[in-house]
Design goal:
Blueprint (H helix, E strand, L loop, with lengths): L1 H4 L1 H7 L1 H11 L2 H20 L2 H7 L10 H33 L6 H10 L8 H10 L1 H5 L7 H33 L3 H30 L1
Helix pairs in contact: 2-3, 3-10, 4-6, 6-7, 6-11, 7-10, 8-10, 10-11
Length: 213
C-alpha cells in the first residue's frame, strides 16, 4: 500500500488512509521516528526570533542563543513533545472522546497524536538554511537583512502557516478515525480540552493577580 511505503506523500493526498495504515501496521517507535522530523520542524520554528520576542517583552537579561545550542535544544524539545506532550493530549482526546461515545483506545490516540506533527517536516529545510545562513536575522527579525534572507523568512512563515493549518485538519481526521465517529465530534473533542486549559490559565492568572495586587 502506498501509505505504508510513502507516508509523507499520502499524508497530503489520503490522510485518513495514511493514519489508518500507520496505526495498524507500524510500531510505536516507527511512528515516533516518522513523526520526529515534523516535531523538530515545529520546535525549530518556535526558536525563530527568540531575541526579538525577549525584546518585545522588555526582558533585561536577553539570552544569547547559538546555532549549536538551538539545534540541541530543539532536538530535545521534539523528543519531549512526542513522548510527553503527545501522551498528555492523547489522554484528553481519550477522555473527551468517550463522552461523545468514541471507541478509540488510548494507545492509538497516543500514536495518532504523534502523527499529527508530521506536516511540520516541510518547515525543516527552510529553518535550517536560515539558521545556518544568517543566524543574526534568524534570532532577531528586527536585524537588517538582505533580500535573500527576507525571502527565506517569508518562505519559513508561509510553510509554518500551511503546516499549522494542516496539523489542525489532520488532528480532526485522526480523532475521527480512531474514535470512529463524525468529524464534528472530533472537532469538539479537540477544542474542548483547549478551552478547558485556557479557562484554567485565566482563573489561575486572576487569582495570582488578586493575591499579588
Amino acid at each position: 500500500m502506498d501509505a505504508d511505503k510513502h507516508p509523507y506523500r499520502t499524508l497530503w493526498t489520503s490522510p485518513r488512509i495514511m493514519i489508518r495504515t500507520l496505526l495498524s501496521k507500524k510500531s510505536f517507535w516507527v511512528i515516533f521516528a516518522l513523526s520526529f522530523l515534523g516535531a523538530w520542524g515545529a520546535a525549530l520554528f518556535e526558536s525563530v526570533n527568540k531575541i526579538g520576542m525577549e525584546k518585545s517583552q522588555n526582558l533585561d537579561d536577553l539570552s544569547n542563543p547559538t546555532v549549536a545550542m538551538t539545534l540541541v535544544s530543539t532536538l530535545l524539545t521534539a523528543v519531549f513533545g512526542l513522548l510527553v506532550g503527545a501522551a498528555i493530549i492523547a489522554f484528553f482526546y481519550w477522555i473527551i472522546g468517550k463522552l461523545f461515545k468514541g471507541t478509540g483506545m488510548y494507545k492509538d490516540l497516543y500514536k495518532g497524536s504523534m502523527i499529527t506533527s508530521m506536516p511540520y517536516f516541510i518547515v525543516v529545510p527552510f529553518t535550517l538554511i536560515w539558521l545556518f545562513g544568517s543566524p543574526a536575522t534568524y534570532f532577531d527579525n528586527e536585524v537588517t537583512r538582505s533580500a535573500l534572507w527576507t525571502v527565506m523568512m517569508g518562505l519559513t512563515y508561509i510553510t509554518a502557516f500551511i503546516a499549522s493549518v494542516y496539523t489542525f485538519v489532520l488532528s480532526i481526521v485522526m480523532i475521527s478515525e480512531v474514535h470512529n465517529f463524525s468529524k464534528w465530534k472530533a472537532f469538539f473533542t479537540m477544542i474542548i480540552p483547549t478551552l478547558v486549559i485556557v479557562v484554567i490559565v485565566i482563573i489561575f492568572a486572576v487569582l495570582l493577580f488578586s493575591v499579588l495586587f
